[in-house]
Amino acid sequence: MKTIVIKSQEELDALPQSFDEYTVIELRSIRTIYVRLARENSSVVARENSSVEAWGNSSVVAKGNSSVVAWENSSVEAWGNSSVEAWGNSSVVALDNSSVVAWENSSVEAWGNSSVEAKGNSSVVARGNSSVEAWGNSSVEAWGNSSVEAWGNSSVEAWGNSSVVAWGDSSVEAFLCATIICLSTYVSIKKVLDNSRLIYKKEGCKRPEQVDSTAIITEYNELVTPTFDQWLDRGYVMADGILKKYKKTKQLDDGLTLYEVFNDISEKETSFVVTDGTHFSHGKTLIQAVSDLMFKKSERDASKYQGTKLNQIFKTQDAIVMYRTITGACSQGVEEFLERNFKDKEEVSISEIIKITEGHYGHKQFKNFGWT
User: Fold this and answer.
1) Contact 183/202 with Cβ under 8 angstroms?
2) Cα separation of 130 and 115, whole Å?
3) What residues have CB less than 8 Å from 68, skipping those under 6 apart?
4) Quick one: CA dihedral 336, 112, 159, 91, positive or negative?
5) What is the 3-state secondary structure (H, E, C) of the chain?
6) How far is the CA of 185 from the CAs of 47, 206, 358, in angstroms?
7) Which residues, at least 6 apart from 48, have a Cβ–Cβ distance to it below 8 Å?
8) Are 220 and 197 in contact (CB under 8 A)?
9) Which of 135, 117, 130, 136 is CA-nearest to residue 158?
C-alpha cells in the first residue's frame, strides 16, 4: 500500500483513474478540493483542517478537523472532530465527535459522541452516545444512549436507553427502556413498550396508541419544574422556554446580567442571554440581546392586528414583525424558530403560526390575541 499526499485541486485532478497498487489519497488543504470520481483501487482521506466537496460516486474518509460537503451518491466516513454536510443521496457514517448536517435524501449512521442534524427526507440511525436533531420529513432510528430532538413531520423509533424530545407533528415509538418527552399536542406517540418512559410536558397531548404493563407515563400535572437558579446550578440557562448550555456570566454596568451560552450540542458557537431580573432576551451579540430586552419591555401597539382572520396569509417577514409586536419575543429566538420551521416558506397563515409555536415563548398570548 502506498500513500499520496494531495495539497491542491490540480494535484488531485492529475492522478490516474486507477492504481496498480492500493493507494491512500490524503487530502491536506484548507482550500476546498472537489472529489468528483472514485478511483479504482484507492481511497480518499481528508485530514487535519482540510476542506473537501465529494460528488458523484466518490468516497471520502474525514479525519481530524477536516470538513466535507457530500453530494449526489457520494459516501463519507467521519472521524475525530470532522464535520460533514450531506446532500442528495449521499451517505455518511459519523464517529467520535464528528458532526453532520443531513439534507434531502441523504442517510447517516451516527456513532460515539457524534452529532447529526437531519433535514428534508434524510434518514439517520443513531447509536452509542450520538445526538440527533430531526426536522422536516426526516426519519431516525435511535439506539444505545443516543438522544434525538424531533421537529416538524419527522419520525423516530427509539430503542435501548435512547431519549427523544418530540415537537410539532413528529411521531415517536419507544422500545427497551427508551424515553420520550412530549412537548406538543400534535405529536403522535405510536408505541411505549418494554419499560420505556413517556413524559408529558404539555397539557392536552395525544395518548399513546399502544402501551404495555411495563410502560411508565408521567402526566403533565405530576411534573416538577426547575427554577432558573436550579437550571443554572446544573450548567444550563433556561430563559423564555429556550434551554442553552451555560458558559460564563458577566455583570453589566447598567444592572443587567449577561450569560454567554453555547448555541448547540457541538459547543462551537456561542450567543448571549441578558436579564434585568424579570425579563430575558437572547441575542447573537451583546448589542442585539440588550436592544431586544429594551424592545420586550417597551410599549408595543398591536391594535392593527385585532380582528384578523385565522386564515389570513402573511409574508413570513411580516409575520415575524407581527409575532414580536404581540408577544415581545426576542429576534434571535424568532430567527432560530423560523430557521427550523419555515426555512422554505415565503408565506404563512395565522392558524399555522398558532399550531407551530405551541410550547414556545408567546404562544398563549398570540393564540388568544383576538383573531376572528
Assistant:
1) yes
2) 6
3) 46, 51, 52, 53, 54, 60, 62, 76, 78, 82, 83, 84, 85
4) positive
5) CEEEEECCHHHHHCCCCEEEEEEEEEECCCCEEEECCCCEEEEEEECCCCEEEECCCCEEEECCCCEEEECCCCEEEECCCCEEEECCCCEEEECCCCEEEECCCCEEEECCCCEEEECCCCEEEECCCCEEEECCCCEEEECCCCEEEECCCCEEEECCCCEEEECCCCEEEECCCCEEEECCCCCEEEEECCCCEEEECCCCCCCCCEECCCCEEECHHHCCCCCHHHHHHCCEEEECCEEEEEEEEEECCCCCEEEEEECCCCCCCEEEEEECCCCEEEECCHHHHHHHHHHHHCCCCCHHHCCCCCCCEEEHHHHHHHHHHHHCCCHHHHHHHHHHHCCCCCEEEHHHHHHHCCCCCCHHHHHCCCCC
6) 46, 6, 8
7) 28, 64, 65, 66
8) no
9) 130
CA distance 163 to 180: 6
Separation between Cα atoms, residue 149 and residue 339, nearest integer Å: 15
**168 and 185 Cβ atoms separated by less than 8 Å:** no
Task: Report pTM.
Answer: 0.60
* Closest C-alpha to 149, from 195, 104, 116: 116
Cα gap 218→34, rounded to integer Å: 51
**pLDDT tens for the 372 residues of the chain, in order:** 889 999 999 999 999 988 889 898 988 888 888 888 878 888 888 887 788 888 777 778 888 788 888 877 888 888 888 888 888 788 888 888 888 888 878 888 888 888 888 877 888 888 888 888 887 788 888 888 888 888 778 888 888 888 888 887 889 999 999 899 998 888 999 999 999 999 998 889 999 999 999 999 999 999 888 899 999 999 999 998 888 999 999 999 888 999 999 987 677 789 999 999 999 999 988 888 888 888 888 778 888 898 899 999 988 778 888 888 898 887 777 777 766 666 556 788 998 888 888 878 888 899 999 898
* Main-chain dihedrals φ then ψ at residue 9, nearest 5 degrees: -60, -40
